[in-house]
Amino acid sequence: MACTYTRSVRAMTAGACVFSVLIATCVLLQPTAAKPGKLRVITDGNWEEILTGEWMIEFFAPWCPACQQLQSVWNEFAEWGEDLGVSIAKVDVTEQPGLSGRFIITALPTIYHCKDGVFRRYQGARSKEDFLSFIDEKKWQSIEPVSSWFGPSSFLMNVMSALFKLSMFIRHCHNYLTEQLGVPVWGSYGIFALATLISGLVLGLVLVFVADFVFPSRRLSPDYHHRKLLAGQVRLLQQSEDEQEADGEEEDDEDEYGGKTEEWQPVGGADALRRRGLGVPEEEDS
């Protein structure tokens, strides 16, 4: 009886070992599948992460039909991200207007490739195989990168991002005024026009103060009055010199006129004086 039980236990153990070997063989013989990856979500707060490493980024909007068709393919592509050594991400432009302005998104969906801060716009086919070959075969090297002037971290794109955020803020304020507070549309436009006028006046006043501080007026300079006094003294001195020159010319004229009068001294009466003055030769006395 004991021998029979021992043989049965041994048989069960051997069967379990054979079954385990079969399962391990099946697992090893299965084709290699993509390791599950994680689709990153990029926002205005963490967008600088894409400046390091290699990225593929999709800009989409939930209401866009083409974006909706691409989502399943993009999710499958993201599963291969770890194997390819690339991070797959997406950006919702309706929730991140700053990134929409920073990348100048004019069409949806828009896909960018980024390698260590150098951006290239993907314009190829949009299937999983095309995305995989684009990364695996490094086809992105044949695409001209975005100019540094229009790079997302440039000063110009920072300004564009701020403008897009401001426009979205104004839109939210308009919706709040018209939908929540019941303000008419024309009333909301009037409020924004008045706010624009006041903000423009305040900004102009601030710019005047800044300009006056950086480039102060000459009237406020410490030596302005001293230079003005010197200029006045020079002007008075010049006037006095001019007057002296004028007096000297008058004296010369008087001297010249006086010499002529000496020539016209009356000799032989008034008639002879008149003849000399007119240049008529005098008649000889008979």
Question: Describe it for me?
Answer:
With 286 residues, the chain is an alpha/beta fold. The protein has 9 helices and 5 strands; from the N terminus they run αββααβαββααααα. The protein has a 5-stranded mixed β-sheet with strand order 1-3-2-4-5. Strand 4 and strand 5 form a beta hairpin. Helix 2 crosses helix 5. The longest helix is centred in the last third of the chain and has 40 residues. The protein is elongated. The N and C termini lie far apart (202 Å).
Determine Rg (CA atoms, Å): 49 Å
H and E string = HEEHHEHEEHHHHH
Strand order in space, largest sheet: 1-3-2-4-5
Total helical elements: 9
Please, what is the average pLDDT? 75
Helix/strand-derived category reads: alpha/beta
Largest sheet: 5 strands, mixed
- Helix content range of the residues, please? 55-70%
The coarse overall form would be elongated
**What's the β-strand tally?**
5
Uncertain spans: 1-36, 259-267
Distance between the termini: 202 Å
Q: How much of the polypeptide forms β-strand, as a percent range?
A: 5-15%
